[in-house]
Design brief:
The structure is a single chain. The protein has 3 domains: 93 residues, Elongation Factor Tu (Ef-tu), domain 3 (Beta Barrel), CATH 2.40.30.10; 109 residues, Rossmann fold, CATH 3.40.50.80; 40 residues, Dihydroorotate dehydrogenase B (pyrk subunit), domain 3. The protein is an alpha/beta fold. The chain is 18% helix and 34% strand. It binds flavin-adenine dinucleotide (FAD) and FE2/S2 (inorganic) cluster.
Length: 255
């Protein structure tokens, strides 16, 4: 199945804590045809003039009929989305992007903030395949990770918080630097750009494989606007994060 474009009904949309929301939309076709690390665009321009452009969101869970997302209100698009109620419709298109490539190596999943979303989906997929793996998520404070409770039936994780209010005190990248990850590992990561930079550096130091999902702002998600360029590391030119990514080998991109 190709890209599905539809007006999807909101099933749930509520705040968990600290401006983090859970959104569930009815979209059986995308749910059945997507894979961990892929994303969809959500557009509200049929309801509001501003913003005209859609916003990208990674699936945190795909049930047989619905898609579940974690988002944080950071601007106008996410602010308007947070006002929508069950029964309202949002325009969506997807699934988009490449998703993660699951390898046989020892899997370590490192998520920061809402970057945990595609890793929850990946963790669920790895559990389905009977793969041993570790999921580690970081936030500034315990409230920033409260959304993980919504997924406790399917994923187990270790927490890092900057203020020590949940799990270990420190940055989520400390999990790698503290000697838990070696050359035998495959790291899968998503989160803020600074965190992904550090994860990439540490993976290179340890000699581990590393895939990062880059959440660069996107205007179309379909490869046509060229708004999501990511510089290539070892050659001239750019990747399009929406169609070549959003998941890249950390050695192949400059972030
Ligand atoms: C592939 C992909 C998957 C994503 N998945 C999720 C997700 O699961 N949950 C989620 O909450 N967000 C996700 N995002 C980011 C989300 O699309 C942006 O947060 C959203 O565009 C913000 O829209 P806005 O109108 O509320 O903010 P805007 O008004 O557009 O921006 C408000 C502020 O946020 C900053 N900002 C905007 N977009 C980003 C971004 N992508 N990264 C960092 N800062 C940004 C702007 O620079 C500005 O300072 C994803 C992005 C991509 C590309
Ligand atoms: S978002 Fe338009 S080309 Fe990537």
């Amino acid at each position: 199945m190709g890209v599905v474009l539809e007006a999807s009904e909101i099933v749930k949309n509520y705040e968990i804590s600290n401006g983090f929301y859970i959104l569930e939309v009815f979209s059986p076709d995308i749910a059945r045809s997507s894979a961990p690390g892929q994303f969809i665009m959500i557009n509200l321009s049929h309801l509001h003039n501003d913003p005209l452009l859609p916003r990208a969101y990674s699936m945190a869970r795909r049930t047989t009929e619905t898609l579940v997302f974690i988002y944080r209100v950071v601007g106008r698009g996410t602010g308007l989305l947070s006002e929508k109620r069950p029964g309202d419709r949002v325009h969506v298109w997807g699934p988009l992007g490449n998703g993660f490539t699951i390898t046989d190596r020892k899997a370590v999943l490192i998520g920061g903030g809402t970057g945990a979303a595609p890793l929850i989906d990946l963790s669920e997929e790895m559990s389905r395949r009977g793969m041993d793996h570790t999921l580690v998520c970081g936030g500034r404070t315990a409230g920033d990770l409260k959304f993980m409770d919504e997924f406790s039936d399917v994923v187990k994780y270790s927490a890092y918080t900057e203020d020590g209010s949940l799990g270990e005190k420190g940055f989520v990248t400390d999990y790698i630097s503290n000697g838990n990850v070696g050359a035998e590992a495959a790291i899968y990561s998503c989160g803020p750009m600074g965190m992904l930079r550090r994860v990439s550096e540490l993976a290179a130091e340890k000699g581990a494989e590393c895939q990062i999902s880059i959440e660069t702002p996107m205007a179309c998600g379909l490869g046509t606007c060229l708004g999501c360029a990511v510089p290539k590391r070892n050659s001239k030119g750019y990747y399009k994060a929406c169609t070549d990514g959003p998941v890249f080998d950390s050695k192949e991109v400059v972030i």
